[in-house]
Amino acid sequence: MGMFVLALFLAVGGVVALVVAKQARWAGVVALVVAGLAFVASSVRTIEPGEVAVPVAFGSAGDPLNAGVQLVPPWTNLVGISVRTDEYTMTSTQGEGAVRGDDSIEVKGRDGATGRVDATLLFRVNGPDATRLFKETGTDYVNKIIRTTTRTCIRDGFTSFNMIEAATTARGDVQTAITDCLRKGIEPRGLTIESFQLRRIAVDDTVQRAIDSKVAAQQNAEQKQFELQAARQDAERKRIEAKAVSDAQQIIKCGAKSSTNAEGQSIVTPLQGDECQNQLTPEYLQWYYVDSLSKLVNAPNNSVIILPFDQKLTPLLNIDSNGKPQVTTPTTKP
User: Fold this and answer.
1) Structural element, H or E, at residue 139
2) Is residue 180 part of a domain?
3) Where are the alpha helices (DSSP H) in 200-260?
4) Residue 247 domain-assigned?
């Protein structure tokens, strides 16, 4: 605006010099040229990144101008409005927040219990709505809209919950309710709510003891549930192991048959009842006995193995007519 006023004075002076003082026409020409340059220079405006500018002239506000170099009439005033993400914090912590001192919000739950809340709101101005926001609210929209609406929505949000629930299990629901209230109250004014954060909920000692008791009970219930689940899994594992041992013994005794399930996997099923084919023959038991001795001999933890023998140095393992092994205890003659 200052450059425009200078250009205006130079232009007037140049015209006067051309009309009145003929001997000073050259000075008038120079003044008009300088005035023209000043007029052009006053029309070139630069809008910083992250901002929009609302042009205001003769009591009227025009459409917002985006960041960059803009040509506007020199008599137009540009009102810059940030469209970056901004935050507004209300807290009792010293050195934080927009207001010095304790700026936390006092809330009351459905059960009548009270507390104090620290909160932060992230928001930004919608660029295309900057002119409407400026016309309706001006540039102090933070105090007129953001602060008042946020504190009201926080108080209203807690009235639907018991304070113990709000500070523990229902904290997320409280935050969601407050966020919904903020969107309804703020976004129609030309601003966007990016996120709302409940930073701290401070309650009195009585409510805090109740909260601690509830949390401890919940943790104990979760531990019991975990132990029950572990016991069930352990019982299922033992059942599967026992079934596997039983099937293996049945297969050894009676044999098995192989089949394929719907997924193409091979299934081995022990033979039962009349299908049972006695596999415990004397030859098999004798082989199993020798194989077991071989494993004992080759075991790293065994160095000496003592077995009963008869006078012919034959291992004392007798197989009766039913295929069952009979252990014979050697006798010594006096």
Assistant:
1) none
2) yes
3) 205-254
4) no
